[in-house]
Amino acid sequence: MKSTVETLSPTRVRLDIEVPYSELTQHVSDAYKKVAAQVNIPGFRKGKIPAAMIDQRVGRGTVLDEAINSALPEFYSKAAREHTVLVIGRPTVDVKEFVDNEKLVFTVEVDVRPEVKLPDFSKIEIKVDDVVVTDTDITEQVDELRARFGTLNTVERAIKNGDFPTLDLTARINGEEVDGGAASDISYEVGSNRMIDGLDDALIGMSAGDKKDFETQLVGQAEGEKGVVEVVVKVVKERELPPMDDAFAKLASEFDTLDELKADFATRLERVKKMEQGAQARDLLVEKLLAETEIPVPDLLVDEEVNDHLSGEGRLEDAEHRAEVDGQVRSSLKSDFLLDAIVKAEEVQVTEVELTEYLVRTSQRYGMAPEQFAQELQKAGQIQQLVAEVARAKALAGVLSRISIKDASGAAVDLEALAPKPAATPVAE
User: Fold this and answer.
1) Do residue 190 and residue 221 come from a single domain?
2) What angle do the packed helices 135-148 and 258-292 form, to 10 degrees?
3) Domain that holds residue 334
4) Average pLDDT, whole number, for the chain?
5) Predicted TM-score (pTM) of this structure
């Protein structure tokens, strides 16, 4: 096989491929077997029909068409590997010439990953917010801890934010109770907005024994449609917090004094804010690189993704939404190309330990056991996507260690302590 590659644009190439007949013989043989298994010729068992008889009854042209269709992907893939063509779209194949017993000539046009020219990272400067832990931040942490040790006491007054009333709820649509739409003796924190939209507003000012209806969108209703929820207040309770003193510190923590507890919260909050500082630096770096780096995007690939998205929504004719989705797809592809270019430049390898740690963290966000989460990813064929995410995060961490990062006060920021620790055993490709 002979092949050449021609760059048509920064995101598209053409492969010219010539295959001698000697490399097609196996495909031709397989094609004869396939046709023989599909046709019925009197006097011959299916699958045992001689090639000459197939040529006579079916035509050698049919066999050759089958052989060529089978051979094209193999030789196209081989040519792409030889020329290190990073394919990202569907190929367009054009058979230019076929001479029986001599050669097959065809061309392939396909979208490819663009070359991304990365800057000298050591010359990049990023400014992030200061790390500031205020007394208010610490007090909020202490109050959250106090809330865990608080007690609920019944009160004879109207409900206000922060109260814990006991409720009965009944949901109806067009006057009919929704299946499974009734619940009794629910303890709910007013102001948390963790249940039904509109419930918090309805409860303010109600007292024990009061009943009220309010409109809201219920699960399963179309956009804009409203159901009615009846809420009955049975009891009103307020939370009494323990005093903020040394006795509470001893009860709720391993510390003997409130000052020691607050100092611990201050240390923890500083660590959290430094992590947030690192995330901000990462986001600003990507934003800066995207703004200052020329990254062409294949138009055909964008069109395909946009059409697939709009088709799934049934909005192919919505020009305004099309423009919106087009922008989102282009932005996403540019970001992917940039991050993958950084991964390549940094020569990043993902280890089994790193992949496992990331999987565990991600599974926690979905409230799933790591093993179950891994199984779901495997079923969906998304393990490689997970590896790519870890590689990108690792590559960005490496870049962040080499750029200049200062806080708003002008002090240098060292994120090295927050960078992923090296681990052994790279993940097999």
Assistant:
1) yes
2) 120
3) 258-418
4) 92
5) 0.74
